[in-house]
Design brief:
135 residues, alpha/beta, 2,3-Dihydroxybiphenyl 1,2-Dioxygenase, domain 1, 4-stranded mixed β-sheet, 2 helices
């Protein structure tokens, strides 16, 4: 048995080919907030949402320490929104973003219950799921 239990995720790191394109996608398509900060004398970028953030690493210039194998496009992330999933779907369609799963809203299971979800890919090919919990 573990001596402790984790409570939540603080941040996830995305390794990116093009940080400005990644910032544009997540701020314009998902409503995240871009933050610039300095760590160990290096300017860094993060995308904030809720009580979490995505730290962005430039491919080939990752901040240390880093994961054993870093590769742009290897993430599969699910984000929860309070906005109706139909509005997300419509916004993405209206703005020319390809919606996976035939453009449809699909049923999934999340950490605390059933979800209605739509899927797309970010500029690096990461799988992005945006969901509503079903009551």
């Amino acid at each position: 048995m573990a001596a402790f239990a984790v409570k939540s995720i603080d941040h996830v790191v995305l390794t990116c080919h093009d940080i400005p394109a990644t910032i544009a996608f997540y701020t314009q398509r998902l409503g995240m907030r871009h933050e610039v900060f300095t760590s160990k004398g290096v300017e860094r970028h993060a995308l904030l949402f809720g009580n979490q953030k995505l730290n962005l690493h430039q491919s080939g210039k990752e901040f240390e320490p880093k994961a054993g194998t870093v590769q742009p496009g290897s993430e599969d992330l699910c984000f929860v929104t309070e906005h109706p999933i139909e509005e997300v779907q419509k916004s993405w369609k209206d703005n020319g973003l390809e919606i996976l799963e035939g453009g449809e809203i699909v049923d999934r299971t999340g950490a605390v219950g059933k979800l209605k979800s739509v899927y797309c890919r970010d500029p690096d090919g990461n799988l992005i799921e945006v969901s509503n919990y079903v009551s």
